[in-house]
Write a structure and sequence with these properties.
This protein has one domain: Beta Polymerase, domain 2 (2-Layer Sandwich). Helix content is about 45%, strand content about 15%. The chain has helices spanning about 10-15, 20-30, 40-50, 75-90, 100-105, 115-120, 145-150, 160-170, 175-180, and strands at about 35-40, 65, 95-100, 130-135, 135-140, 150-155, 185. A hairpin with a 2-residue loop joins strand 4 and strand 5.
Length: about 190
Protein backbone atom coordinates (compact mmCIF):
# COMPACT_ATOMS: atom_id res chain seq x y z
CA UNK A 1 0.00 0.00 0.00
CA UNK A 2 2.26 2.81 -1.19
CA UNK A 3 -0.65 4.71 -2.66
CA UNK A 4 -0.21 8.34 -1.60
CA UNK A 5 -3.96 8.80 -2.06
CA UNK A 6 -4.57 6.46 0.88
CA UNK A 7 -7.34 7.64 3.11
CA UNK A 8 -8.34 7.88 6.73
CA UNK A 9 -10.05 4.52 6.20
CA UNK A 10 -6.71 2.97 5.25
CA UNK A 11 -5.12 4.53 8.33
CA UNK A 12 -7.93 3.17 10.49
CA UNK A 13 -7.37 -0.37 9.18
CA UNK A 14 -3.67 -0.16 9.92
CA UNK A 15 -4.08 1.33 13.41
CA UNK A 16 -6.92 -0.90 14.55
CA UNK A 17 -5.21 -3.93 13.04
CA UNK A 18 -2.30 -3.63 15.47
CA UNK A 19 -3.49 -4.96 18.83
CA UNK A 20 -1.14 -3.03 21.11
CA UNK A 21 -1.76 0.33 19.46
CA UNK A 22 -5.49 -0.34 19.46
CA UNK A 23 -5.39 -0.98 23.24
CA UNK A 24 -3.51 2.28 23.79
CA UNK A 25 -5.95 4.15 21.54
CA UNK A 26 -8.89 2.89 23.62
CA UNK A 27 -7.13 3.61 26.94
CA UNK A 28 -6.43 7.21 25.93
CA UNK A 29 -10.05 7.61 24.82
CA UNK A 30 -11.23 6.59 28.29
CA UNK A 31 -9.32 9.55 29.77
CA UNK A 32 -11.72 11.88 27.92
CA UNK A 33 -9.13 14.64 27.57
CA UNK A 34 -10.27 17.61 25.48
CA UNK A 35 -9.09 17.74 21.85
CA UNK A 36 -6.86 14.72 22.53
CA UNK A 37 -4.86 12.74 19.96
CA UNK A 38 -2.21 10.06 19.81
CA UNK A 39 0.31 11.51 17.43
CA UNK A 40 3.70 11.59 15.74
CA UNK A 41 5.64 8.31 15.72
CA UNK A 42 2.75 6.36 17.21
CA UNK A 43 0.99 6.78 13.86
CA UNK A 44 3.82 7.55 11.43
CA UNK A 45 6.09 4.64 12.37
CA UNK A 46 3.36 2.03 12.10
CA UNK A 47 2.31 3.24 8.65
CA UNK A 48 5.91 3.34 7.46
CA UNK A 49 6.50 -0.15 8.85
CA UNK A 50 3.49 -1.49 6.93
CA UNK A 51 4.57 0.26 3.74
CA UNK A 52 7.98 -1.38 4.15
CA UNK A 53 6.36 -4.81 4.52
CA UNK A 54 7.17 -5.21 8.20
CA UNK A 55 4.83 -7.21 10.37
CA UNK A 56 6.56 -6.27 13.63
CA UNK A 57 6.34 -2.57 14.55
CA UNK A 58 9.55 -0.59 15.02
CA UNK A 59 9.95 0.16 18.75
CA UNK A 60 8.88 3.64 19.81
CA UNK A 61 11.04 6.05 21.82
CA UNK A 62 7.85 7.40 23.32
CA UNK A 63 4.13 7.63 22.72
CA UNK A 64 2.97 11.18 22.14
CA UNK A 65 -0.41 12.10 23.60
CA UNK A 66 -1.39 15.68 22.81
CA UNK A 67 -4.47 17.53 23.96
CA UNK A 68 -5.71 21.08 24.39
CA UNK A 69 -7.07 22.35 27.69
CA UNK A 70 -6.67 26.09 28.28
CA UNK A 71 -8.31 25.80 31.73
CA UNK A 72 -5.51 23.72 33.30
CA UNK A 73 -2.03 24.12 31.86
CA UNK A 74 0.18 22.97 34.75
CA UNK A 75 2.83 20.47 33.58
CA UNK A 76 2.05 18.40 36.67
CA UNK A 77 -1.28 17.46 35.09
CA UNK A 78 0.57 15.95 32.14
CA UNK A 79 2.78 13.95 34.52
CA UNK A 80 -0.31 12.60 36.29
CA UNK A 81 -1.78 11.47 32.98
CA UNK A 82 1.52 9.79 32.06
CA UNK A 83 1.44 7.93 35.39
CA UNK A 84 -2.09 6.69 34.71
CA UNK A 85 -1.12 5.46 31.25
CA UNK A 86 2.11 3.85 32.48
CA UNK A 87 0.15 1.93 35.10
CA UNK A 88 -1.76 0.30 32.23
CA UNK A 89 1.22 -0.02 29.87
CA UNK A 90 4.33 -0.31 32.10
CA UNK A 91 6.69 -1.00 29.19
CA UNK A 92 5.83 2.22 27.38
CA UNK A 93 7.18 5.74 27.74
CA UNK A 94 4.34 8.25 27.38
CA UNK A 95 4.92 11.89 26.56
CA UNK A 96 1.75 13.82 27.38
CA UNK A 97 1.67 17.49 26.41
CA UNK A 98 -1.11 20.03 26.79
CA UNK A 99 -0.78 22.09 23.61
CA UNK A 100 -2.41 25.07 25.36
CA UNK A 101 0.98 25.80 26.94
CA UNK A 102 3.46 24.42 24.40
CA UNK A 103 3.59 27.63 22.38
CA UNK A 104 5.75 29.19 25.12
CA UNK A 105 8.35 26.44 24.86
CA UNK A 106 8.30 26.63 21.07
CA UNK A 107 8.41 30.44 20.78
CA UNK A 108 5.10 30.67 18.91
CA UNK A 109 1.97 32.74 19.41
CA UNK A 110 -0.63 30.88 21.51
CA UNK A 111 -2.23 27.92 19.77
CA UNK A 112 -6.01 27.88 19.46
CA UNK A 113 -6.38 24.10 19.45
CA UNK A 114 -4.41 20.92 18.84
CA UNK A 115 -4.66 21.23 15.05
CA UNK A 116 -3.09 24.68 15.27
CA UNK A 117 -0.21 23.24 17.30
CA UNK A 118 0.30 20.35 14.86
CA UNK A 119 0.67 22.82 12.00
CA UNK A 120 3.88 24.00 13.72
CA UNK A 121 5.43 20.54 14.06
CA UNK A 122 8.56 19.91 11.95
CA UNK A 123 7.42 17.39 9.29
CA UNK A 124 4.12 17.06 7.48
CA UNK A 125 4.18 13.27 7.92
CA UNK A 126 4.52 13.66 11.70
CA UNK A 127 1.98 16.44 12.21
CA UNK A 128 -1.03 14.21 12.62
CA UNK A 129 -3.02 12.39 15.23
CA UNK A 130 -5.58 9.66 15.73
CA UNK A 131 -8.27 9.23 18.33
CA UNK A 132 -11.16 6.97 19.29
CA UNK A 133 -14.28 8.96 20.12
CA UNK A 134 -17.90 7.93 20.51
CA UNK A 135 -17.15 4.49 19.11
CA UNK A 136 -15.38 5.66 15.99
CA UNK A 137 -11.88 6.29 14.69
CA UNK A 138 -10.92 9.90 13.94
CA UNK A 139 -7.93 11.43 12.17
CA UNK A 140 -6.48 14.91 12.60
CA UNK A 141 -4.10 15.68 9.73
CA UNK A 142 -3.65 19.41 9.00
CA UNK A 143 -1.36 18.57 6.06
CA UNK A 144 -3.37 15.56 4.92
CA UNK A 145 -2.19 11.96 4.62
CA UNK A 146 -0.51 12.09 1.20
CA UNK A 147 3.02 12.57 2.55
CA UNK A 148 2.57 9.90 5.22
CA UNK A 149 1.40 7.24 2.77
CA UNK A 150 3.73 8.53 0.05
CA UNK A 151 6.72 7.94 2.38
CA UNK A 152 7.64 11.59 1.89
CA UNK A 153 9.46 13.57 4.56
CA UNK A 154 9.27 17.31 4.11
CA UNK A 155 9.19 20.26 6.49
CA UNK A 156 5.96 22.00 7.40
CA UNK A 157 7.65 25.34 6.64
CA UNK A 158 10.51 26.44 4.39
CA UNK A 159 12.34 28.54 6.97
CA UNK A 160 15.94 27.58 7.74
CA UNK A 161 15.19 26.68 11.37
CA UNK A 162 12.45 24.17 10.49
CA UNK A 163 14.49 22.62 7.69
CA UNK A 164 17.51 22.24 9.99
CA UNK A 165 15.32 20.65 12.66
CA UNK A 166 13.95 18.11 10.17
CA UNK A 167 17.49 17.25 9.05
CA UNK A 168 18.61 16.75 12.68
CA UNK A 169 15.61 14.60 13.53
CA UNK A 170 16.05 12.50 10.40
CA UNK A 171 19.71 11.83 11.25
CA UNK A 172 19.31 11.37 15.01
CA UNK A 173 16.42 8.97 14.57
CA UNK A 174 18.12 7.13 11.70
CA UNK A 175 15.07 7.26 9.46
CA UNK A 176 17.05 6.45 6.29
CA UNK A 177 18.41 3.24 7.83
CA UNK A 178 15.12 2.20 9.41
CA UNK A 179 12.86 2.97 6.44
CA UNK A 180 14.99 2.97 3.25
CA UNK A 181 12.05 3.68 0.93
CA UNK A 182 11.53 7.15 2.40
CA UNK A 183 11.90 10.14 0.10
CA UNK A 184 13.29 13.33 1.60
CA UNK A 185 12.18 16.65 0.14
CA UNK A 186 14.40 19.12 1.94
CA UNK A 187 15.33 22.51 0.48
Amino acid sequence: MTDPAASATDLEKIMLGEEHRRAILFAVAKLELPDCWLSAGFVRNLVWDRLHGRTTPTPLNDIDVVYFDATETAPAVDRQIETVLRSQFPNENFSVKNQARMHTRNGHPPYVDTADALRRWPETCTALGVAWRAGRFEVLAPFGLVDLFGLLVRPTADDAETVALVRRRMEQRRWRETWPLLVFDLP
